[in-house]
Amino acid sequence: MGIRKLGYVGLNVTDLGAWTDLLGRTLGIGVSKSGSGEIALAELDEFQYRLALYPSTEDSPRELGWIVDSPQELDRLSRRLTDAGFTVEEGSADEKELRGATELRWFTDPVGYRVELAVGEAKVRDRRGATGLGHFVQAGPRLPELRELYESVLEFRLTDYRAPGLFFFRCNRNHHSIALASADTASIHHLELEHGSIDDVGRAYDRAKAQSVPISISLGRHMNDKAISFYVRNPSGFHLEIGCGGIEVGDDWLPHDFGRSDEWGHHHADANPFASPAS
């Protein structure tokens, strides 16, 4: 498979200070600045960054980046995208340098988001606490076209799903790297920041409660990937999931409707837009 993992996400943010405070003081994630000093980079693991925050007059996704196995696979996927009607562009030299990539291409998905395919990652140093960017959930209109893009063109595999329209896809052995859901307007429902242990998650949960950070979904365990996590409402208005312990699946895994959303916990502060009819 050409795409190896979720590499990074870039966000336009209106309140960089609030984001930096949430990541550092509450979640224990270091934040550095890019060479130009304008972009904040969340230090989730040993690589250059997994989350980039760009000061802006609006809060919106800027880029969604996938790591590709090799230049040959990048060429192959580029041909598949072109054959499917997408226009594939080359990333700039500055963009490649920031991402630590040797090659970078991008296209626009059916709802208007910039999706990047990168070869190479720049290691910086070892870090403790968060261990990487786990997955994101993208909600929006044109769900059949998004499914066609990820499943048929980019060759993701369906892991499982839940009525009335939430689908989980994988590009490696992790249960999922992206989930797609139907909604009236395009948005990122949440990003998951992967931690190494339940103790790391628990300490972040304690800090969030002590600092009165809005906990949008309480501590709980998902039914499908078995991850233990909680969610906070970030300064851009969507969720950050802080989790650990998601399962891996093999080639013999059979996609299925996993029914209810959680084993326990995960009580929503607001109405759950993806609640199944049974719930």
UniProtKB/TrEMBL annotation:
<feature type="domain" description="VOC">
    <location>
        <begin position="132"/>
        <end position="245"/>
    </location>
</feature>
<dbReference type="Pfam" id="PF00903">
    <property type="entry name" value="Glyoxalase"/>
</dbReference>
<dbReference type="InterPro" id="IPR037523">
    <property type="entry name" value="VOC_core"/>
</dbReference>
<protein>
    <submittedName>
        <fullName>2,3-dihydroxybiphenyl 1,2-dioxygenase</fullName>
    </submittedName>
</protein>
<keyword id="KW-0223">Dioxygenase</keyword>
<keyword id="KW-0058">Aromatic hydrocarbons catabolism</keyword>
<keyword id="KW-0560">Oxidoreductase</keyword>
<dbReference type="GO" id="GO:0008198">
    <property type="term" value="F:ferrous iron binding"/>
</dbReference>
<dbReference type="InterPro" id="IPR000486">
    <property type="entry name" value="Xdiol_ring_cleave_dOase_1/2"/>
</dbReference>
<comment type="similarity">
    <text>Belongs to the extradiol ring-cleavage dioxygenase family.</text>
</comment>
<feature type="domain" description="VOC">
    <location>
        <begin position="5"/>
        <end position="120"/>
    </location>
</feature>
<dbReference type="GO" id="GO:0051213">
    <property type="term" value="F:dioxygenase activity"/>
</dbReference>
<keyword id="KW-0479">Metal-binding</keyword>
<dbReference type="InterPro" id="IPR029068">
    <property type="entry name" value="Glyas_Bleomycin-R_OHBP_Dase"/>
</dbReference>
<dbReference type="InterPro" id="IPR004360">
    <property type="entry name" value="Glyas_Fos-R_dOase_dom"/>
</dbReference>
<keyword id="KW-0408">Iron</keyword>
